[in-house]
């Protein structure tokens, strides 16, 4: 269809709308005019209407035009003003994802259409800058003057004002494009080879015509309504209904209704924030549903030219339409996000309501991107989504954005079967961290804990061992006749083939991916350790290091342990000199545990006694007694799982205890005794949950090392000399010269559970084993599910209610409730004293 | 019986520091009692002040021994630690080496500790440093001088020597007559 012809038609069409809008005064006249216009179809009629300026005419015309002609569908304020950005964005989107380059024809055409609309609109803008908010034509053909336009629009307008040259350039471009397009269309009509495209166009025209009819009907109805608010509301409801209808129709039968995706996108271009959000979310749901389980591949030229059956053709068309729509959907999301942050940079003041609205829109856009990332990572444009999400992991201002991004990355890591997504994400994240000069939010690093490297990645050394074993086996194999060997060989081949079919994931490929991921991860970790200027992130880094410790090459061991020791010592020195933040010994404990973990997982080759680390742990434990937040439970990124959440200090100490005494047999009794003595010393001062956890650890030590019952002996001292409680060396403090008198104190603790448990543990300590019935409460605490984590979480709330707080056998660990602001007090915080005080004051 | 001269103290403490480092302080500044080192018949004894004062009543020729013998000065003026000092060395040891059960007997017959017998070793042990040898039950067996550092031990072959023998508790039987 010729462009000019279309113009004429739509100008008249537009006129009718226009009149309706301005025409509360002269409704009837307008109606007549409309009829006239339709009959005559002459652009000249424009002059009749004096109320409207020409420029607005133009704008509205194209708005109108965009409303019902399919190929101008992309016209909206946003995309229009964003032209310079989109210019950049477009190649970005298509270049990065090589395979996903959609069909050239389709894309180019779409591009051209956008160009036209944008350029024309710009033109009009240049003519009249005052009019910046256009009335919108809704699906029902009703015109609404938007009260709040998107900030993005304003922003870009300012940009436009700054460089008027741009629009001129684009005019030129537009002309060129127009020529090109006409030529192409002529060629197409002549050749009629690109069937898919023609089909699409036809459908569009059918839709257009339908819409035109509908809109005409609507006009007549709605002219009677006068209250704009009611109109607005009705429009909203209608749009919502349409969203639902279109979405459900697509989901019901995606094959035939795929083209209606475009309609969804159009609705998203409404200026109403609520509708925008809804349509984004609707599109999200639709795409999540209809996206196939494979990646759509770009057709090669030979494939395109080759003859294919009708079905294949149909499928290809379907795929390309889906791809184009999906790409544009992603772009619109990206535009929203980019626009928001660009606008933030400009620091323009505006009303709170507007800010909230744009923020909520941003959050919805982020939500959509992250959802797509976690749900359909196999599909095209993954890298683009990933870049968009990763780039926002470290955003500070709306904190929800980075939280959502980090969470989605963590989910991606846990869901990743092939290792491919993790590798891509890691590359991007490591670049991000480097760019930020290793100064990022803690959560960015926490996502690494979810990498599926821990169990799945096997060391190549083990494979070598296997080969060696095979060699040995071969020698041991019994003699076989030639025939038997042949049969065996054939069987093996068959088995191998069977395996190939069975294995869905290529293990070798995955291993390679994971090795690469690991390399990036460790490079990042080591660099952060060496930099060491960022104490804030050290605990997270060390936690990750400990988690993947078994994968670190043994050659790095010495260096790594030296670095850990340095950090630990520095930290302790700072503490002794009263420098830095003194309250937390977290970093030191993390160093210690990382070292233990390194040694535990790879220490088979040589058994090393980490003296310095032991001593440092012993020395720093005394600080815990002074820290009221020692047992504070923090939430993990994804689940309420003790494996992933960042650990409290007492937890770290207890993990250290496990490594030192439980997982390996400790040789020196003096050392064990010294540690348990110090643990019980600090236990007297700790909050309830930490005391219970410490008691649990004491219990397991008593059971494992029965000689410790010497410490529970109240009759006489076993050792000679004097116990030196303040000496920071477990080997020299001579613990057997004292006894664990702290248990006596704990048995009269204010908390009933602590009382009972201390009694129970004390009985075990005296007997040296748990076999003997230990006290009246033994049955209650025998549950194997009870460990220190249980205590830490169950009693983690700083609230004490004697009626509630006794231990019941619980099937699963209950979810923690956060009571912030309540102090240690009876019955939910308010003490008698406070009540009395209030009464007195009121009296 | 007399206190050690400056020269003697220096030699003695240098030797002792090889094994227990700065923990010598803990030998002298004890919270329970005052202890001191006394020289008698070229041997150095670690003795509490109370006993030392009582021992002054006994003549030099008649006094055989007092307190715990730490070792003796050789004719060339060097100091040699005796196995009798093991209890104190073990308590304040800086570097420890645990020997597997199959390595206990060879060591107690006066042999060096081999890599194959090495059960466990303190991290960062340097080369040529005094170290206390323990059994896997944490019973001190003797002491020696390390032949390799901890990191070198890792690469050593099983027959390589890890610790050079200095003294072991087998000497209580083997050198019964010379111990005093």
From TrEMBL, chain A:
Q: Does the keyword Cell wall biogenesis/degradation apply?
A: no
Read off the InterPro entries from this record.
ARM-type_fold (IPR016024), CCAAT-binding_factor (IPR005612), Noc3_N (IPR011501), Nucleolar_cplx-assoc_3 (IPR016903)
Species classification: Eukaryota, Fungi, Fungi incertae sedis, Chytridiomycota, Chytridiomycota incertae sedis
Q: Which residues form the Nucleolar complex-associated protein 3 N-terminal domain?
A: 239-329
What is one process in the GO biological process aspect for this record?
Answer: DNA replication initiation
List GO molecular-function terms, semicolon-separated: chromatin binding
Which keywords does UniProt give here?
Coiled coil, Nucleus, Ribosome biogenesis
Q: What does this protein do?
A: Required for synthesis of 60S ribosomal subunits and the transport of pre-ribosomes from the nucleoplasm to the cytoplasm.
Sequence ranges of Basic and acidic residues compositional bias? 34-47, 176-185, 204-219
Q: Does the keyword Cell division apply?
A: no
The compartments listed are: Nucleus, Nucleolus
Q: Name one Pfam family in it.
A: NOC3p
Specify where the region named Disordered lies, as residue ranges: 1-52, 82-130, 156-226
Q: Where is the composition biased (Acidic residues)?
A: 98-115
User: Which residues, by range, are in coiled-coil regions?
Assistant: 484-511
Q: Which family does it belong to?
A: Belongs to the CBF/MAK21 family.
Q: Which organism is it from?
A: Piromyces finnis
Name of the featured protein: Nucleolar complex-associated protein 3
From TrEMBL, chain B:
Domain annotation PUA: ranges: 95-170
**Protein keywords:** Nucleus, Ribosome biogenesis, RNA-binding
The GO annotation for biological process reads: assembly of large subunit precursor of preribosome; maturation of LSU-rRNA from tricistronic rRNA transcript (SSU-rRNA, 5.8S rRNA, LSU-rRNA)
InterPro entries, from UniProt?
NIP7_N, Nip7_N_euk, PUA, PUA-like_sf, PUA_sf, Ribosomal_synth_fac_NIP7, UPF0113_PUA
Alphabetical list of PROSITE patterns matching this protein: PUA
Task: Spell out the molecular function terms from Gene Ontology.
Answer: RNA binding
Transcription found in the keyword field: no
Q: What is its main location?
A: nucleus
Q: Where in the cell is it found?
A: Nucleus, Nucleolus
| The keyword Magnesium is assigned to this record | no
| Annotated GO CC locations | cytoplasm; nucleolus; preribosome, large subunit precursor
Cross-referenced Gene3D superfamilies: 3.10.450.220, PUA domain
> Which Pfam families does the record cross-reference, listed alphabetically?
pre-PUA_NIP7, UPF0113
Q: Determine the domain of life of the protein's source.
A: Eukaryota
Q: Please give the SMART domains that the UniProt record associates with this protein.
A: PUA
SUPFAM superfamilies per record: Pre-PUA domain, PUA domain-like
Fill in the subunit field for this protein.
Answer: Interacts with pre-ribosome complex.
Family designation: Belongs to the NIP7 family.
Q: What does this protein do?
A: Required for proper 27S pre-rRNA processing and 60S ribosome subunit assembly.
Name it: 60S ribosome subunit biogenesis protein NIP7
Protein source organism: Piromyces finnis
């Amino acid at each position: 269809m010729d462009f000019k012809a279309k113009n004429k038609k739509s100008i008249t069409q537009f006129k009718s709308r226009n009149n309706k809008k301005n025409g509360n005064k002269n409704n009837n006249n307008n109606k007549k005019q409309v009829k006239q216009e339709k009959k005559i179809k002459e652009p000249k009629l424009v002059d009749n209407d004096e109320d409207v300026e020409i420029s607005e005419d133009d704008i509205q015309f194209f708005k109108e035009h965009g409303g019902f002609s399919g190929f101008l569908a992309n016209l909206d304020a946003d995309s229009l003003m964003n032209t310079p950005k989109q210019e950049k964005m477009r190649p970005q989107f298509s270049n990065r994802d090589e395979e996903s380059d959609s069909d050239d024809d389709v894309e180019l055409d779409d591009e051209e259409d956008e160009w036209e609309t944008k350029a024309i609109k710009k033109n009009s803008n240049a003519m009249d800058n005052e009019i910046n908010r256009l009335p919108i034509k809704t699906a029902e053909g009703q015109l609404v003057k938007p009260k709040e336009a998107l900030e993005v629009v304003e922003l870009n307008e300012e940009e436009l004002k700054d460089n008027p040259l741009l629009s001129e350039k684009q005019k030129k471009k537009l002309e060129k494009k127009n020529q090109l397009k006409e030529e192409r269309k002529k060629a197409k009509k002549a050749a009629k080879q690109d069937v898919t495209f023609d089909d699409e166009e036809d459908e569009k025209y059918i839709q257009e015509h339908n819409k035109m009819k509908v809109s005409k009907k609507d006009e007549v109805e709605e002219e009677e309504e006068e209250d704009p608010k009611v109109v607005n509301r009705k429009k909203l409801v209608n749009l919502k209904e349409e969203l639902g209808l279109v979405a459900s129709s697509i989901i019901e039968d995606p094959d035939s209704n795929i083209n209606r995706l475009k309609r969804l996108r159009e609705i998203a271009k409404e200026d109403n924030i609520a509708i925008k959000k809804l349509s984004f979310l609707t599109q999200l749901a639709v795409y999540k549903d209809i996206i196939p389980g494979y990646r759509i591949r770009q057709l090669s030229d030979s494939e395109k030219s080759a003859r294919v059956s009708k079905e294949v053709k149909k499928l290809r068309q379907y795929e390309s339409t889906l791809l184009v729509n999906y790409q544009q959907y992603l772009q619109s999301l990206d535009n929203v996000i980019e626009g928001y942050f660009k606008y933030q940079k400009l620091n323009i003041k505006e009303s709170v309501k507007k800010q909230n609205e744009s923020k909520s829109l941003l959050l919805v856009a982020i939500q959509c991107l992250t959802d797509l990332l976690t749900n359909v990572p196999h599909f095209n444009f993954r890298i683009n989504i990933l870049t968009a999400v990763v780039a926002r992991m470290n955003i500070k201002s709306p904190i929800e954005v980075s939280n959502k991004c980090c969470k989605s990355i963590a989910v991606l890591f846990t869901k990743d079967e092939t290792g491919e997504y993790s590798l891509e994400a890691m590359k991007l994240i490591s670049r991000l961290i480097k760019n930020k000069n290793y100064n990022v939010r803690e959560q960015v690093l926490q996502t690494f804990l979810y990498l599926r490297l821990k169990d799945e990645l096997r060391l190549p050394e083990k494979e070598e061992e296997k080969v060696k074993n095979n060699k040995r086996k071969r020698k041991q194999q019994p003699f076989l006749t030639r025939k038997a060997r042949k049969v065996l060989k054939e069987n093996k081949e068959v088995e191998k083939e069977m395996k190939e079919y069975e294995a869905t994931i290529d293990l070798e490929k995955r291993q390679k991916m994971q090795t690469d991921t690991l390399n990036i991860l460790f490079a990042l970790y080591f660099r952060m350790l060496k930099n060491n200027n960022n104490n804030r992130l050290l605990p997270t880094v060390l936690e990750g290091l400990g988690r993947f410790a078994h994968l670190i090459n043994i050659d790095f061991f010495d260096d790594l342990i030296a670095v850990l020791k340095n950090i630990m010592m520095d930290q302790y020195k700072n503490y002794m000199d009263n420098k830095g933040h003194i309250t937390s010994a977290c970093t030191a404990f993390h160093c210690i545990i990382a070292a233990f973990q390194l040694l535990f997982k790879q220490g088979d080759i040589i058994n090393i006694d980490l003296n310095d680390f032991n001593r440092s742990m012993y020395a720093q434990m005394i600080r815990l007694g002074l820290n009221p937040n020692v047992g504070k439970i923090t939430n993990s990124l994804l689940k309420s799982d003790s494996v992933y959440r960042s650990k409290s200090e007492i937890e770290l100490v207890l993990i250290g205890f496990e490594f030192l005494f439980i997982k390996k047999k400790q040789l020196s009794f003096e050392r064990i005794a010294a540690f348990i003595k110090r643990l019980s010393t600090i236990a007297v001062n700790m909050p309830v949950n930490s005391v219970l956890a410490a008691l649990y650890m004491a219990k397991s030590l008593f059971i494992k090392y029965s000689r410790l019952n010497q410490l529970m002996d109240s009759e006489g001292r076993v050792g000679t000399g004097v116990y030196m409680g303040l000496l920071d060396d477990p080997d020299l403090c001579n613990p057997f010269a004292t006894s664990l008198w702290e248990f006596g104190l704990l048995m009269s603790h204010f908390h009933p559970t602590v009382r009972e448990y201390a009694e129970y543990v004390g009985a075990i300590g005296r007997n040296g084993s748990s076999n003997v019935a230990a006290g009246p409460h033994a049955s209650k605490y025998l549950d194997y599910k009870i460990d220190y984590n249980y205590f830490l979480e169950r009693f983690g709330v700083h609230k004490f209610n004697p009626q509630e707080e006794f231990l019941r056998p619980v099937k699963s660990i209950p979810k923690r409730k956060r009571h912030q602001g309540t102090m240690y007090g009876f019955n939910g915080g308010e003490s008698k004293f406070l009540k009395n005080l209030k009464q007195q004051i009121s009296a | 019986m007399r206190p050690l001269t400056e020269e003697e103290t220096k030699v003695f403490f240098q030797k002792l520091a090889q094994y227990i480092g700065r923990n010598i302080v803990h030998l002298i500044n004890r919270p329970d009692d005052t202890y001191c080192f006394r020289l008698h018949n070229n041997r150095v004894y670690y003795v509490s002040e109370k006993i030392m004062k009582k021992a002054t009543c006994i003549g030099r020729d008649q006094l055989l021994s007092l307190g715990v013998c730490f070792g003796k000065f050789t004719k060339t003026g060097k100091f040699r630690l005796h196995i009798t000092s093991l209890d104190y060395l073990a308590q304040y040891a800086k570097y420890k080496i645990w020997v597997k059960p199959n390595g206990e007997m060879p060591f107690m017959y006066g042999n060096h500790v081999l890599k194959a017998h090495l059960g466990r070793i303190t991290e960062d042990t340097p080369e040529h440093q005094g170290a206390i040898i323990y059994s896997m039950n944490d019973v001190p067996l003797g002491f020696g001088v390390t032949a390799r550092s901890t990191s070198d031990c890792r690469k050593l072959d099983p027959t390589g020597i890890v610790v050079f023998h200095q003294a072991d508790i087998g000497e209580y039987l083997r050198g019964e007559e010379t111990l005093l």
